[in-house]
């Protein structure tokens, strides 16, 4: 019986080598994936889709959705007009993991207790909060559940296997938040917003900025200094994600983001409307504090850190302005540069 299993079903043979398939662990130490979840918790199962729809309908009937925002479904939300766009309400939860891995405007999933709690505190518009049935109810979980309930976000109990699929294998700690896709405004919505306020337009356009946290920081500065929105190109640019929402500290709820197929053409259209276009460039002839067109309808164009503005965008600008810095200082990231330029414009307009 050489090489047989020792009594008790241990993980090692008499020779001392691990038994095949055990990793050297005994049967009691091996952990499986648990029982097959019931039908209403299996992604893609009709019962699961019905349960998720019922949870959304129950919350909507309770009138718990936030003022000015749509209900807790998957509809995309746009602060520019308060309307809804094409959403993912008919999708099953089984497709969320694929959405998370893919780019574009599909729904994201925020995983982990700290990350979920920060997203809820920032007011990130979400479709559902998924919580494990065997989670430890610590302070973070309780606060997350309370914030979700106050915001009208339905909570769906999910097993470990479903949470693993939902988060794409991330460390979720029994908590995940499905974020609604964002519905972008049109470029003309930003100038229309300015006309409605009766003040000269102030828009920030991002050229080649790919970090969502920079987009969130720019939106926060736009809100702080009386701007009317942010313009981004559809390709090779940061998008409104959960990371952008958190970096904006909720400012994206007040500042619309417009997405255009071609940034250069969009800037040309703004110029035809009477707006001046000022690009931030380290080699600019004019200091941003001396910008003569600061009190006129204005688009500030911010390039990526290191590369700056692209050639076509720089050629389209009416003026290139620099931020005065020490000679040996490295270039600023987009969020910081936009904040400094917006403050200078606000001072010139007498708003700060």
Concise summary:
The protein is an alpha/beta fold. It has 11 helices and 13 strands. Helices cover 32% and strands 16% of the residues.
Describe the protein.
The radius of gyration is 26 Å and the shape is elongated. It is built from eleven helices and 13 strands. The longest helix is centred in the first third of the chain and has 16 residues, at 46-61. It has a seven-stranded parallel β-sheet with strand order 9-8-7-12-10-13-11, with helices on both faces. It starts with 45 loop residues before the first helix and ends with a helix. The chain has helices at 46-61, 96-101, 113-121, 139-150, 160-166, 187-197, 212-224, 242-248, 263-272, 311-316, 334-348; strands spanning 76-77, 84-85, 108-111, 126-132, 155-158, 175-179, 202-207, 229-233, 257-260, 276-280, 286-287, 298-303, 319-322. Helix content is 32%, strand content 16%. Mean pLDDT is 77; it is low at 1-9, 62-74 and 82-106. Helix 7 packs parallel to helix 8. The protein is an alpha/beta fold and 352 residues long.
